[in-house]
Amino acid sequence: MPDAAQRRVVTLVVAPLVAIGLGITAVALPVPYVEISPGKTCDALTHCNDDANQILTISGPKQYATSGQLRLTTVSVRGGPGSKMTLFDALRGWLDGKVAVLPRDITFPPGQSVDENNCQNVIEQDESQNTATTAALRQLKYKVPVTKQVYIAQVGASGAAQRAGLDECDFIESVDGKKPKDTADLLALLQAHKPGDTVTIGYLRKMTDGKAEPDIKSVSVTLGADPANPSHALLGIKPAETEVTHPPFKVSLYLGGVGGPSAGLMFALAIIDKLTPGALPGGRIIAGTGTIDDAGAVGPIGGIQQKVFAAKSDGATVFLTPAQDCADAARVHVKGIRLVSVDTLDGALSALAVLRGEPGTLKDCHA
Description:
Elements (H helix, E strand, L loop, with lengths): L2 H26 L4 E11 L12 E4 L9 E10 L8 H8 L5 E4 L10 H26 L6 E10 L4 H5 L6 E5 L7 H9 L6 E7 L12 E6 L1 E3 L2 E6 L2 E9 L4 E4 L10 H12 L9 E4 L2 E2 L5 E2 L4 H10 L4 E5 L3 H5 L7 E5 L2 H11 L7 E2 L3
Parallel strand pairs: 3-13, 13-16, 16-17
Antiparallel strand pairs: 1-3, 1-4, 2-12, 5-11, 6-7, 7-8, 9-10, 14-15, 17-18
Helix pairs in contact: 3-6
């Protein structure tokens, strides 16, 4: 065979193989997207399907039997800090009607580390439990004081805190024996010192499963200097604060490794159901989502469409939907599940009353 013919044959054989190899390599490359898919649901009155631990425990007041379920909903996220998403994953997600594929930078802050993301999820879940407890008990006319707790949202690289072993999500319990009431108070306690001074920081370590270590620890920290103002002492952290509720009896909420603030509404309903006669769900499987504040206002969340799919797959016939998320939720047209719009805890209770055949008001979601 002449050389030219041989080269053409080799080209015809090799070129497709090279193209296939390049294609396989391309789809395996990481891409800056996040995949959000339906996650597990959990009955706030009992437990998650994959975890026998009781979610809600109340000690002290009389509690009542109920019937039905109040299922909080979650999403599964791929492509966030600490995980990667490939082009193949993105293509598969775009073809799946139950999955959302979004640019990573609109879902997570650019440059957010794994530790910072874990801390954010833990703190948001912790605050969700606190605000749900406050809102529920105030709805039942209990007096519930609220204070602030200072924690470390970010540790500066090579700073005083990092050298001393402090970490993201550590609660700052004291500075030289004085408890900071909020972030401004923490800064004031630190600014009473000069760069190079040594202070004793009392801290409580918050774990990624939402639990805290049982004992307060202390560490000596030699304060650094602020580069912009060398006379100011620096601990080398970005402080933040979260809410701590002080109910008149013990209310414990535990959701394992689930993070974020979106279970607040369902937590609050579960607390009220346990402390009042009758059954809020009325024997139904009620699912829902939504943040909640101390006054009972229900706020929007992420991944609403995926949560509707998750609720339906676990048998829910009603989905309590934050009013601001109603239009998005209704666009998925999931049959057999009623989307009920709620914007307050009181409104959610009224809607559940209507579903039980009692007086109240209920508004359905519309796209």
